[in-house]
Amino acid sequence: MTLYAELHRHLGGSVVPRILWRYFQRQNPEQAGRFPEYPGFEEFYTRPRNTLDEYLELHTLVESVQTEETLPYFIYRLIRGAHIFENLAYLELRYTPYLRTSERLSQSERIDQMTQIVEIVGKASQVAEYPMVTSQILCMHSRLPYEVNKAIVDLAAQSQEYVCGVDLAGGDAHYAERLDEFIGLYQYARSLGLKTTGHLYETPDGCYPELLPYLMRIGHGIQIPLKHPELLSQLQQQGQCLEVCPTTYLKTGTLQDIRQLKVVFDRCFEAGVDIAIGTDNAGLHNVRLQFEYENLLTQDVINFKQLQACQDAAFRHAFAWPHTQDPTSLLTGLLKTEPKKTLAGKSQ
Ligand SMILES: [Zn+2]
């Protein structure tokens, strides 16, 4: 039996459409009126978008309802689903805490409120009946001011009980004009001993080699093997891992066909660069982790051996997995049954 590690999942995009629709029916008359029937909502919520920016716009719909009061409601359902349907033993959940604070507050009050949000998410992720190792990655955001992003890094460093690293999100085309600022923030994060990942080389507009040295993992990074394979040996030497989330590229219009990922996997395997497969926005896509795996197999993007290599890589590159072995090898001994011995001399 295989248990999985998910390294790339956004809190905003992790709410499955039916849970969100039902929440609107119960709590939000405006959205409930907009989508009186579930199928219409599912169609709106999960349909592919033309660009990454258009796709990210949808996150604001979920962010607006994920508040201090409602976060436990959504996170409980997320952990329940991940335990029962996805066999997750390990989950890193990422989000921008500032975007869950109250818009009525001033910037500095919102920065203060982020501490509570991290605690609420941390406590809600520990569900006794659905055991799983969970940790948070706090995302800096390309559309937030420097002071807020720096406060996010500081908060990550102060909240090691709940937080295992930092990320940069918000659309990789928007980093260009503030590149030095983001380099400085990553340098600062590393100086505090934080683990780092970042949404980078996701689209052709998001290729910033200047940021690569500061990252331990690369969020997506598919444009490296696709367009800049000369960088792969550098990644291999640094022990950096790509977090590849197949469905996303079809939903954002970055790729037209999942089979285009074959080059990504082939070149990474050849160069010795690890890949962990993630869902990114499992709810928004209405796609669970196993489907990502199965789809890559049935479309001949990877074979079973390569899939297992990616599943192992996920545990090796997990920022907060506390064990030296993955859970499958721990379980195998328990589940193995000895073949029954036949009695000597008895005719078969
Ligand atoms: Zn992402």
UniProtKB/TrEMBL annotation:
The keyword Transferase does not apply. GO terms for cellular component: cytosol. Its EC number is 3.5.4.4. GO terms for molecular function: adenosine deaminase activity; metal ion binding. One of its GO terms (biological process) is adenosine catabolic process. Its cofactor is Zn(2+). It comes from the Bacteria. Pfam families: A_deaminase (PF00962). It is an enzyme of class 3 (hydrolase). Residues 5-320 form the Adenosine deaminase domain. Belongs to the metallo-dependent hydrolases superfamily. Adenosine and AMP deaminases family. This is adenosine deaminase. It comes from Allocoleopsis franciscana PCC 7113.
